Amino acid sequence: MATQPRRKAKRKLKYEAPWNPERVKALRTHMGLTQSQFAQELGTLQQTVSEWECGYHTPKGTSVKLLQLVAERAGFKYGAKPAEDEAQGSTQN
Predict the structure, then answer these.
(1) H/E element holding 40?
(2) Contact (Cβ atoms closer than 8 angstroms) between residue 49 and residue 38
(3) Are the C-beta atoms of 57 and 85 separated by less than 8 Å?
C-alpha cells in the first residue's frame, strides 16, 4: 500500500473586512438616511444595520455585494477610508 503525501491545511488569509462598522455608517450618513431607512433600502432589518454599525456582526455574502451596489449608486467610495466627519459627525438612528 503506497502512502500519499500529506497536504498542508489551507490557511485563511487575514484581511480587513470591506465593510467594517465605520464604512457601513459612513455610507448610511453619506446617503442621509436613518438606520431604518437604510435597512429598508437594503431589504433588511434596522437591527441588522445597528449590529453592523456597532460591530456585533459583519456583513457577509449577498449583503456585501448589495452594499457595494448601493455605494456605487450613491457615489460613495467604499474602498476608501471613511472621512473623519462622516464617521463621527452624524448620530442618526
Answers:
(1) helix 35-42
(2) yes
(3) no
Largest interatomic CA distance in the chain: 68
* pLDDT tens sequence across 30-60: 999 999 999 999 999 999 999 999 999 999 9
Residue type, 64: V
DSSP H/E element including 26:
helix 21-30
- Angstrom distance (rounded) from CA 81 to CA 78: 8
Instruction: Say how many domains are in the chain.
Output: 1
Show the domain range for 66: 21-86
Using N-to-C axis directions, what is the helix angle for 35-42 and 21-30, rounded to 10°? 90
CATH number at residue 45: 1.10.260.40
